[in-house]
């Protein structure tokens, strides 16, 4: 496969992935939409998000817009899940025919309830979707710290080819053919991260937080299977790996958002304070609707959804969860 790739989206994760792919030998064009960001990367090889902490490999060339995209086979899509559709339309669906699109956002689209690959399949039928997910903070990848992720494609052979292309000395993708399971794992873990953060923010203790993680893992398995993914996928990096990291680290934006909710702030107050992107805020009602449509019982997603709605307090939600009928594990 050609070693030339495009990365669309020059935010925290886009710049980190561009750097990782370049250190693995790819020649990378990074598409941003802010001239200052593009100039900083090109002129000083510095990651504007972490100027003192992370250098960007010099095989990354940043630019505004999508010039040159026609000549490359592989595109990493690294914009927030809710704008992926718009960005595909901005690039132009005809230009994506036959290309590999590696979807790196961890979210479900509001309104359509679609996974990222379903958006690609709807708009650009001839493109080949992949999903990259797993425990990976942008700052770690940007600093070339060791990171392992799951990379799913439509078949194992296609996934392996993509793994070979993107692997590097400190970035180790594992191949999977469970596109549905990997995409859902990445989106759903953000919902549980909000819940786990809220538990800590409300001072409910680590016992409660671990219970949420374990029962969330079981709930996630039920939902993933009902939606056509494999529960076995959840035993890997995209499932357990990312769930445990995002449900325990204040560095997770979703966890931090949940922490602030649990501590008493409202969604609006947190958003107004300029909080960083927390995809779970958008994916929670989608996950809840998908579960409802498919008859899957998801008490924890339901509780996080109600908390985001702001109509109930975390104390009431926890009392309700504790009062559910006793059952076996
Ligand atoms: N950060 C992380 O550690 C990780 C993030 N992810 C996932 O990656 C995705 C992106 O996250 P992250 O990079 O952190 O988010 P950021 O907010 O840091 O970056 C998002 C980027 O997308 C750009 N963007 C937003 N809207 C548009 C648009 N309509 N057209 C073109 N570009 C647009 C933004 O540009 P501008 O700044 O100009 O608004 C920004 O460069 C999320 O789904 C997240 O869950 C996955 C793993 C790790
Ligand atoms: O997905 C991530 C780590 O794998 C990043 O998590 P947050 O978006 O919650 O910061």
UniProtKB/TrEMBL annotation:
Quote the subcellular location field of this record. Answer: Cytoplasm
The protein's Enzyme Commission number: 1.1.1.94
Catalytic center at which residues? Answer: 189
Keyword field: Cytoplasm, Lipid biosynthesis, Lipid metabolism, NAD, NADP, Nucleotide-binding, Oxidoreductase, Phospholipid biosynthesis, Phospholipid metabolism
- Residues of the Glycerol-3-phosphate dehydrogenase NAD-dependent N-terminal domain: 5-156
Q: What is its main location?
A: cytoplasm
Q: Which residues bind sn-glycerol 3-phosphate?
A: 106, 134, 136, 189, 242, 252-254
Question: To which pathway does this protein belong?
Answer: Membrane lipid metabolism; glycerophospholipid metabolism
Record InterPro entries: 6-PGluconate_DH-like_C_sf (IPR008927), 6PGD_dom2 (IPR013328), G3P_DH_NAD-dep (IPR006168), G3P_DH_NAD-dep_C (IPR006109), G3P_DH_NAD-dep_N (IPR011128), NAD(P)-bd_dom_sf (IPR036291)
Q: List residues traversing the bilayer.
A: none
Q: What Pfam families would the database entry show?
A: NAD_Gly3P_dh_C, NAD_Gly3P_dh_N
Tell me where in this chain the Glycerol-3-phosphate dehydrogenase NAD-dependent C-terminal domain is found: 178-317
Q: Which reaction does it catalyse?
A: sn-glycerol 3-phosphate + NADP(+) = dihydroxyacetone phosphate + NADPH + H(+); sn-glycerol 3-phosphate + NAD(+) = dihydroxyacetone phosphate + NADH + H(+)
So where does NADPH get bound? 13, 33, 50, 106, 138, 253, 277, 279
The family assignment reads: Belongs to the NAD-dependent glycerol-3-phosphate dehydrogenase family.
State its role: Catalyzes the reduction of the glycolytic intermediate dihydroxyacetone phosphate (DHAP) to sn-glycerol 3-phosphate (G3P), the key precursor for phospholipid synthesis.
Name this polypeptide is given? Glycerol-3-phosphate dehydrogenase [NAD(P)+]
Origin organism of this chain?
Answer: Maritalea porphyrae
The protein's gene is named: gpsA
